[in-house]
Amino acid sequence: MEKKAKAAFEAGIKLGALYHQWVGTPISPQTAGSIEKAIEGAVGLQPYVDEISVKIDTSQMVLNTFGYSELSGKMFDVKIKTKVGNATCHAELKLEEDYPMMKITELI
Amino acid sequence: MEKKAKAAFEAGIKLGALYHQWVGTPISPQTAGSIEKAIEGAVGLQPYVDEISVKIDTSQMVLNTFGYSELSGKMFDVKIKTKVGNATCHAELKLEEDYPMMKITELI
Amino acid sequence: MEKKAKAAFEAGIKLGALYHQWVGTPISPQTAGSIEKAIEGAVGLQPYVDEISVKIDTSQMVLNTFGYSELSGKMFDVKIKTKVGNATCHAELKLEEDYPMMKITELI
Amino acid sequence: MEKKAKAAFEAGIKLGALYHQWVGTPISPQTAGSIEKAIEGAVGLQPYVDEISVKIDTSQMVLNTFGYSELSGKMFDVKIKTKVGNATCHAELKLEEDYPMMKITELI
User: Fold this and answer.
1) C56 contacts C75 by C-beta, under 8 angstroms
2) Which residue, of A44, C58, C86, D69, is most buried by count of CB atoms within 10 Å of its CB?
């Protein structure tokens, strides 16, 4: 039980961290790929992260007068897998109705 | 079990989030109190947070040429309590040797 | 001329910095005051800042399912005065149509 | 004169913004390149930016227990060129003694 809870805790840390590190970044459909890679690379450095995939939903981008947008929580589609000993947590950050929801999808 | 894991997950989200939201903020011993209050207020708005206490260790501040410092991970002493149903998670963010460590201190 | 340009440069630094430091913070009408104070305190520490006033437009807040909002660029109404020698720059960050515009309002 | 001051103001905005957007990001010598590209791409979207170059000084990285570091102001070596009409501002963000200094290097 302790290891499962820790795997869930660690997944939460990484999702909360990436959200608040990156929200507000200037972004466009053309630069979304480099931001996805940079986030994956940064999160992948952190302890207990086994897999991380970041997609930014460019259809959520509303371009401003100057032709770009800002990364917002609603654009994230993130899947993460953390491992602590033999416990594994799968979690995600994804738009649900109007809220960028973080949740555990599997904990074994 | 599911509720305990979720309480741990939610605690992780809040600690990861506050760390990456606030690190880098210009700060001095004189303004530390207002930053502590602002962080506590912001985290307290988020779901499942039952208690939050933020202390910033001003002894870790090295003032630059212009007489101020920058909020860094090593300055944080944070205690959080999350509740999901009847499950409760106590967690903290605190300097351990040279690393700002996040960990679960009690999960019941 | 050189001092005026530097006063303008310094005003730009502070507005760009505060925007990207604070966007994404969980916020509600009840906590807006403490965030305003924290930002004013943080910016006031930085070199060449003579005056800083931060108002957050709570009417721009759309509360999510959990009853809070996130600080976004559109909520800012910031006025700053920087001084470099005898040069003074007044600048602001304020919503203009749909863009959070930063501009110099007076440079003397 | 007005256009020169605005070019300086815009350069300041971009440097202040990138600093506070990106400081705190987990980073290592292996991921520095992807972060440099992501920052260049993001800043390049913003108005009045003509050229932007971002180098992260990996020799400043002190790896923690888990083998990574955090992007800090001291690691930045940034050069930016902004244009407003026929005015051009060259500015930079670079470590000077112990302070990550932002300054105008040429304004014409």
Assistant:
1) yes
2) D69
Domain of residue B30 covers 2-107
Q: Which residues of A touch B10 (CB under 8 A)?
A: 12
The minimum CA-CA distance between B66 and chain D, rounded to whole Å, is 9
Give the pLDDT band (50/70/90) at residue A1. Answer: low
Has D10 been labeled as part of a binding site? yes
Query: D61-73, pLDDT tens digit by residue?
Result: 999 989 999 999 9
- Name D101's Cβ contacts closer than 8 Å, sequence gap at least 6: D93, D94, D95
Is pLDDT larger for residue C33 or for residue C98?
C33
CATH no. for residue B75?
A: 3.30.1300.20
DSSP C3-70: HHHHHHHHHHHHHHHHHHHHTT-EE-TTTHHHHHHHHHHHHHTSTTEEEEEEEE-GGG----TTS-EE
| Residue A55: CB atoms within 10 Å | 14
DSSP 8-class letter at A58: G
Q: What does the pLDDT look like over A22-73, one tens digit per residue?
A: 999 999 999 999 999 999 999 999 999 999 999 999 999 999 989 999 999 9
Which of chain B's residues have a Cβ under 8 Å away from the Cβ of A17? 16-17, 19-20
Instruction: Count the domains in chain A.
Output: 1
